[in-house]
């Protein structure tokens, strides 16, 4: 393992800072009953702290050389899945819910992974994830700020998001060019707003932020909703489609999705 040369195409920046590793593991609040999924174990910086401490640990690693190293390990309750976490069927892996997800994610796929996590939220109780700081800013953003977007709304609807640690490039080998951030996502007992149809809500939210400079009316019409539909929603709810999507609170998006689907 020591001879493994980090592969840029897999976003391999290995964690070496013991304090960051400890803070990440502490935020997961692991117990012996937990089932954990780690995406991208790499050389095991986080994995080694979890093996043997939890009821089961599933790891997904795209790099065959690194995965082979884990496959050769004798530990029970460790299951290695070799492949692309974006393509694998998580419902065939997350067989013993609820799960905790722990990952130092490759930055180039972190948003896509997060959308996939949100899709599987019914199987997940908590996530502790490392992101590029700019992505972290988006996930913790408030309405009407430049960082507020579809990912913010979808994450905060289901999860309470908090920062665990701000992480400098020196915490990794090789060092990335950007600052990073570990975030904890705790599944809420109730979503922040009542959403009837999560798939439709997701479609509306994504459409609302598709063209950030345009009004919500233009975004929604571009996504196939009609001006007449929007007028009816305004008459019923008072929502103003002259505003931009980034000014809408999560509750307003829920009202909007409900209106578009039911009026
Ligand atoms: N967890 C290790 C650590 O903290 O040192 C490694 C983190 S490194 C930033 C990202 C890891 O994700 C690498 O091991 C990389 O090979 C793996 N990886 C990259 N793309 C992946 C994908 N699509 N599916 C699964 N693993 C992936």
The small molecules bound here are:
S-adenosylmethionine
- What is the oligomeric state here? single chain
**What series of H and E elements makes up the topology?**
EHEHEHEEHEHHEEEHHHH
**Cα-based radius of gyration, to the nearest Å:** 20 Å
The number of strands is 9
CATH architecture of the largest domain: 3-Layer(aba) Sandwich
**Percent helix among the residues?**
25-40%
Poorly predicted sequence stretches spanning 5 or more consecutive residues: none
Across the major sheet, the strand order is 4-3-2-5-6-9-7
- The CATH topology name of the largest domain reads Rossmann fold
Q: What integer is the average pLDDT?
A: 95
Distance between the termini: 59 Å
SS content category:
alpha/beta
For the largest beta-sheet, the strand count, sense and barrel status come to: 7 strands, mixed
Question: Which short descriptors sum up this protein?
Answer:
Helicase, Ruva Protein, domain 3, 2 domains, alpha/beta, seven-stranded mixed sheet, 263 residues, 10 helices, binds S-adenosylmethionine, two-stranded antiparallel sheet, Rossmann fold, 20% strand
What does this structure look like?
With 263 residues, this protein is of the alpha/beta class. The chain folds into two domains: 180 residues, Rossmann fold; 64 residues, Helicase, Ruva Protein, domain 3, CATH 1.10.8. It contains ten helices and nine strands. Helix 6 runs antiparallel to helix 7. The protein binds S-adenosylmethionine (SAM). S-adenosylmethionine (SAM) binds next to strand 1 and strand 3. Pfam families: RrnaAD.
């Amino acid at each position: 393992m020591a001879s493994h040369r980090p592969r840029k195409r897999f976003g391999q920046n290995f964690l070496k800072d013991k304090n960051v590793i400890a803070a990440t593991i502490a935020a997961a609040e692991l117990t012996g009953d937990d089932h954990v999924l780690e995406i991208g174990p790499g050389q095991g910086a986080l994995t080694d702290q979890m093996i043997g401490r939890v009821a089961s640990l599933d790891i997904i690693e795209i790099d065959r050389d690194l995965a082979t190293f884990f496959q050769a390990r004798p530990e029970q309750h460790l299951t290695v899945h070799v492949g692309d976490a974006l393509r694998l069927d998580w419902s065939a892996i997350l067989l013993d819910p609820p799960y905790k997800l722990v990952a130092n994610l490759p930055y180039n796929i972190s948003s896509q992974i997060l959308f996939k996590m949100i899709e599987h939220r019914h199987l997940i109780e908590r996530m502790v994830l490392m992101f590029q700081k700019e992505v972290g800013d988006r996930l913790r953003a408030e309405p009407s700020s430049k960082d507020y977007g579809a990912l913010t709304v979808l994450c905060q609807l289901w999860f309470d998001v908090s920062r665990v640690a701000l992480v400098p490039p020196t915490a990794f080998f090789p060092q990335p060019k950007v600052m990073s951030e570990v975030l904890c996502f705790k599944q809420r007992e109730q979503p922040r707003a009542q959403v009837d149809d999560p798939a439709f809500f997701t479609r509306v939210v994504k459409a609302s932020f598709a063209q950030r400079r345009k009004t919500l009316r233009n975004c929604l019409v571009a996504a196939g909703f009609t001006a007449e539909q929007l007028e009816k929603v305004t008459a019923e709810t008072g929502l103003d489609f002259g505003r931009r999507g980034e000014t809408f609170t999560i509750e307003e998006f829920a009202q909007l999705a409900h209106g578009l689907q039911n009026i």
